[in-house]
Design brief:
about 150 residues; alpha+beta; Aminopeptidase; about 30% strand
Length: about 150
């Protein structure tokens, strides 16, 4: 099956459904830290959103949003458990990188939780380098931040 990736925005109903699933999972993983992280994960006004489909079934999502003049931040990356291990997250991440380059950004940054072992492995596998935690995560011991320099 070939993954079809649709570029959209945060009003997309499939994106909203996937984000609800993501938040449900993160409440369990993050436990007491969830409220802190949740405040930075609103989806209102996300202009650069992707949703992946297999046979018209939404199987993953992600977004980028401008962080500064040269960087975008990856937000709301998610693939439901039943679709993991098929390379979907890597395809979605690659599409976000392509879109960031088209928008003339030279760097992608992101934050994920240390407890999210699969996410950490995904970013390392895709050549993201550990960086010091950036604002607003700089004093958060349960966070890990990454970046990837994009060749324009």
């Amino acid at each position: 099956m070939k993954l079809r990736i649709e570029r959209t925005n945060s009003t997309n109903p499939d994106f909203k459904k996937l984000v609800n699933e993501l938040d449900t999972e993160l409440k369990i993983i993050d436990g007491d830290d969830h409220a802190f992280y949740d405040q930075f994960n609103g989806i209102e006004n996300l202009r650069y959103v992707i949703v992946g489909y297999l046979d018209n079934i939404p199987v993953g999502c992600g977004a980028i949003k401008q962080y500064d003049n040269t960087s975008v931040e990856v937000k709301r990356m998610f693939v439901p458990k039943e679709f993991r291990g098929k390379g979907i997250a890597t395809q979605l991440l690659t599409e976000l990188e392509i879109w960031a380059k088209e928008l003339k950004f030279s760097k992608i940054i992101l934050e994920t939780g240390l407890k999210q072992k699969n996410a950490v492995a995904l970013y390392k596998k895709n050549d993201y380098a550990n960086i010091p935690n950036y604002s607003p995560y700089e004093n958060t011991k349960t966070s890990v931040c990454f970046q990837k320099i994009l060749i324009l």
